[in-house]
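Ligand: magnesium ion. Inputs:
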Amino acid sequence: MPISLLSTDFDGTLIGHEPDARTAASLAAALADLRARGAVWAVNTGRQLWFALEGLEHARLPHDPDFVLSSEKDIFRRAGEGDWEAFGDWNARTEVRTTDLFHRAQGVLEAIGAMAEGGDGIEILYENGRVAGLMTPDAATMDVVAARIRETALDVPEFSFNRNHVWMRFAHREIHKGSSLAELARLLAIPRAEVLAIGDHHNDIPMLDGAAAAMVACPANAVDEVKRVVRAGGGYVSPHPWGEGVADAIRHFAATGK
Ligand SMILES: [Mg+2]
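Predicted complex:
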């Protein structure tokens, strides 16, 4: 199967975690080759749109992605140089679902707020004037916090979260990188069999579990749980880290298909 739609995470996938991280030369070549074959590329990130664009500018890739899927939720299309617009009505629909969920989950959010006040260095984060998620001092604390929130939210089954290192964004359980990727593919009339998704962390699992993309991969630096999910789906775990791993995975699927 050809790769018609490529969905890549940004931090830890296209680039490493150093503050001045730039992308690998092999990645630029693989992206340019894929584009020449007519494939569409989406950066699928937990970053908000403005922060994703800032990162992309700094990464100095050979060209902009065609789409940015931001905040593990929204779909933006490049409408021109530096000009990005909502694609379809997905963003509006997911915003309604998120607002409705947060309203119904008020008790859960209050319990999480109380947890943060209890110490452990948990910091509540806000976006667009409302509670959005939280940050923990380290990954081990995040494991504990995630387990406690799952327990706290048992009576609001739609309440979920997307976690990435020490960051967590609260979300409807059906709103994540996988569902936004599936919606993008639907809008573009690209079948799941022609979608390749690549990511490194927990918040990438919803786009790597096979539901949205038949071809899945991760770089060598991916967390163990991601590697397990990728292997279970018959995907490709690259021996190379970050951008080198992404380039390697693109070459792998371009050569062999599924
Ligand atoms: Mg990542």
